[in-house]
Write a structure and sequence with these properties.
377 residues, binds flavin mononucleotide, 32% helix, two-stranded antiparallel sheet
């Protein structure tokens, strides 16, 4: 039985027409080729998912310094741009739309990823409590080097250069990764930002880096092609803030002036114990403080997604793990079809298994039909 619902309504995203409200969340899968160049397998993976209203690519490193995950793609070399171009062409050919997520991991790196095995950089020399994965091994985290004040505009410029590369590679826009304990989030939250210059101290100062990145990127590619992802009060990556409500209310409000394509909020769901009650549902709380399009993400099934849009708390819903295992998620929703389960053991493994072999409904039907013909003979 097919159904019609709010999730299947089209949406005008700053002039980009989305045929439905299903967004594929950014998902690191660590399958890029040599030189962190996007490859053929990635082209298959993304084009299989082109029926999403919008695809947001996995986090893609803006520079060598930005790296913290092996075999994740970059967007700063000519070969990486060429590799991505084949992917955006394939997605567009299949009727899809795709943004690239711009990523700098900050302190969540290790000398093994850095040029000349230097220390990773961060707002302050505050070590993450945890481990860094590198080619199947777990390495102890290191104390990062605090960026010099005069280095910071150069890092913001790396985001802007990467955004220009993304447009050259045929992306419809970019999402600035400001969530989940990576560089921009490390500037925002005060457990990781101990600076005493204009980038630290007050929340006005701690959000300066985020704003400089947003401005640099918008100036180069246009605000209507730029979104940003934040995880208000998120604890992922050993993060915390002494006053998450004040920090993120200010940060979100300060984004209003840019008229971005969207604000993408990661719901704190499993990590919300430390947050004030009203922030535990990020979309509902920040809707009051943000004027533009909101994408919400984190723990959504179809029912919750319908509810959050119907309640007016968000415009679009991003699905992560469900898109890993259901390339045709929107189609399945339309037809009320059963969903494939995801296999987390293959999230970050190499190869095709658990990556491009989740069947679409059409492929399942063909397989069953093929079996029937086999049985008849
Ligand atoms: C395998 C995997 C990789 C992820 N990679 C990224 C990433 O590159 N960038 C990002 O912002 N979030 C990343 N996330 C977080 C997802 O975008 C999303 O917020 C999370 O999966 C919760 O949504 P879900 O409940 O619909 O899966 C990742 C999550 C998973 C499971």
């Amino acid at each position: 039985m097919s159904r019609k619902s709010i999730l299947l309504k089209s949406y005008d995203l700053s002039g980009l027409e989305l045929p439905n409200r299903f967004v594929m969340a950014p998902l690191t899968r660590q399958r890029a080729g040599k030189g962190n160049v996007p490859n053929k397998m990635m082209k298959t993976y993304y084009s299989q998912r082109a029926s999403a209203g919008l695809i947001i690519s996995e986090g893609s490193q803006i520079s060598q310094q930005a790296y913290g995950y092996n075999d994740s793609p970059g967007i700063f070399t000519k070969d990486q741009v060429k590799g991505w171009k084949k992917i955006t062409e394939a997605v567009h050919k299949n009727g899809g739309r795709i943004f690239l997520q711009l990523w700098h991991v900050g302190r969540h790196s290790h000398p093994v990823y850095q040029p000349d095995e230097q220390l990773p950089v961060a707002p302050s020399a505050v070590k993450e409590d945890g481990q860094i994965r590198y080619r199947g091994k777990k390495l102890e985290t290191v104390t990062p080097r605090a960026l010099l004040t005069e280095e910071i505009p150069g890092v913001a410029n790396d985001y802007a250069d990467a955004a220009v590369n993304a447009i050259k590679a045929g992306f419809d826009g970019v999402e600035i990764h400001g969530a989940n304990g990576y560089l921009i989030d490390q500037f925002l939250q005060d457990a990781t930002n101990k600076r005493t210059d204009r980038y630290g101290g007050s929340i006005e100062n701690r959000s300066r880096f985020m704003k400089e990145v947003v401005e640099a990127v918008c100036n180069r590619i246009g605000k209507e092609r730029v979104g940003i992802r934040l995880s208000p009060g998120g604890a992922h990556g050993d993060m915390s803030d002494s006053d998450p409500k004040k920090t993120f209310t200010y940060a979100v409000k300060s984004l209003n002036q840019y008229n971005l394509a969207y604000l993408h909020l990661v719901e704190p769901f499993m990590e919300s114990a430390h947050l004030p009650q009203e922030m535990k549902h990020a979309a509902a709380y920040f809707r009051k403080h943000y004027n533009g399009t909101i994408i919400t993400c984190g723990g959504y099934d179809f029912e919750k997604a319908e509810e959050v849009i119907s309640a007016g708390h968000a415009d679009l819903v991003a699905f992560g793990r469900l898109f890993i295992s259901n390339p045709d998620l929107a189609e399945r929703y339309k037809k009320n079809a059963p969903l494939n389960d995801w296999d987390c053991s293959t999230f970050y493994s190499n190869g095709k298994k658990g990556y491009i072999d989740y069947p679409t409904m059409k492929e399942e039907d063909e397989r069953i039909l093929g079996m029937r013909y086999c049985c008849k003979r």
